[in-house]
Hints:
The chain is α+β, with helices and mostly antiparallel strands. It folds into 4 domains: 3-275, Bira Bifunctional Protein, Domain 2 (BirA Bifunctional Protein, domain 2, 2-Layer Sandwich); 278-404, no CATH class; 408-470; 474-626, Threonyl-trna Synthetase, Chain A, domain 2 (Threonyl-tRNA Synthetase, Chain A, domain 2, 2-Layer Sandwich). Helices cover 40% and strands 22% of the residues. The strands form 4 sheets. Strands 1, 2, 3, 4, 5, 6, 7, 8, 9 and 10 form a 10-stranded mixed sheet that branches. Strand 1, helix 2 (46-49) and strand 2 (59-67) form a beta-alpha-beta unit. Helix 9 (282-292) packs antiparallel against helix 12 and helix 19 packs across helix 20 (528-543).
Amino acid sequence: MNSNVLRQKYLDFFKDRGHAIVPSASLLPENDPSTLFTGYGMQPMVHYLLGEKHPEGVRIADSQKCFRAMDIDDVGDNRHTTFFEMLGNWSLGDYFKAEQVPWMYEFLTSELGLDPKRLYVSVYRGNEKYGIPKDDEAVKLWQEEFKKDGIEAKAVDMAEKKGMQGGRIFYYNEKENWWSRVGVHENMPEGEPGGPDSEMFWDFGEHLQLHENSPWKDEPCHPACDCGRFLEIGNNVFMQFQKTAKGFEELKGKNIDFGGGLERLAVAVADNPDVFLCDVFTELKNKIEEIAGKKYGEKDDETRAFRVIMDHLRASVFLICDGANPSNKDQGYFTRRLIRRAVRFAYVLGVESNFTSEVAKIVIKDYKENYSELVDNQERIIDEMNKEEDKFRKTLVQGEKEFNKWTMSKISANKIIPGEVAFKLFTTYGFPIEMTEEMAQEKNMEIDMKSFEIEMKKHQDLSRTASAGKFKGGLADSSEEVTRLHTTAHLMLEAMRRVLGDHVQQKGSNITAERLRFDFSHGEKITDEQKAEIERIVNEVIEKDMPVTFTEMSVDEAKAQGATGVFESKYGEKVKVYQVGEGDDIFSKEICGGPHVTHTGEIGGKFRIAKEKSSSAGVRRVKAIIE
């Protein structure tokens, strides 16, 4: 069973159970301030999990493409990837645990044919401090399912200290079995939804933990440990709570949010713990073997290089396709980092000439049936890959010259290259530490690795802090102030199209309670006269107190009615079209997920463009306020 078959089995399974199948959202989230990327399947669903009506109904399923930048440094083992597909199904106030648990058991055991004797489950231990009970309800539901296959599913606690204890179901704390976008309870801001979850694990065999070379052979083994024996293949989130000023309150409608990694499910079906032997990587692996003249799996350092290259270039293709061209800021910074890291690791395989675009073509070919936008953007993807690789290879040459200068100076006297020097080669010139070590050995020198690792840790800690503290994009929250400015942004976009031309499209936004920041396609600076006219149009609409309503319709109907939207993007069968005005006095129609005010007069105050500048090639940025 290859991944395409598995993906379709999942979607068909839930379609048969009344779910609308919706397409994947972009990797660059529009209205989520918590991250630069869509890193979880539920991110595009947050507004609906909080109670907003989904145009496709209360039962939704999809395969969502995801990217997790925090996993870049972990890629190289047999299970970490930065890009992956997350199979998901949601109940928006409809069914709950009693339906979801049996369905997941049926899908895993009947549809995928996984041996139930090798499936294990975790549930939430509860927390008295937050008034959230132990999830005995989920335990009973799982026990009933396992019993159908003659398996007594014993539930045990404290596995992290006591090990398996003959258990099939395991209680864990919130670190393991509580889910929200920002982690455990104390990290959740007011308004954030979350809840206990129940995860499913596949057992690859206890030999992985008991192997004589395993660092975990003397540690207690259990599904959530790191020995490599178990792999999480799915997570049922029972999203029933919302953080409030009073603590945790139940949502009006209890929700189900399931997420299961496509690649992880595929390796469970194949019963091989190496995700890079999954069929989605087969053609990539073959192409790199052809380019490098090396075989995957023969040497540890080369195997790691294969994995980094396959993962990073696959992720880069999807990121560029969705608009994250390599750059020094925001999402583009990570695309650049991925491509450069792949090129660096190619040196381990002896590849010293351009190759990334050849690998990119394989990714596009492999995924074109499910993501046709890759074909539509192929020329741009290949061009960006080539430009970035060319640029980096020139940097490598410059870095080598700098290395030779340093080694001919006082460093040569004690034959030790300070970690600070190796770190500068890494950060400034992109030299992999392995490459610096090899060059040092040629001069009978060595690197002070201890000081290098200290510098690297400082760099990583600083990067994480900066990343965590930066407001990335979209809507800061769903407050009244942010909602007012969100509607204002839509009025401004329509005004821009009237003043500047129909070519104007939204390219990104960042909206807080204080101001809106808006990126749009336009090739030149806005004149003062144009700016004044845009402000006049928006303020006129605000003063007229026009009604803001939405209608659910098909994309074709939306186009026919003249609604604006980026129609190259994928939408579901139904969309929400927000209309400003009524009757013969309609100002705009636009596809959007909301939230919006009900009348433009609610915006209040006077709209003013505070600043306008270039954001990138062909894209301008404005900051605007309501005074």
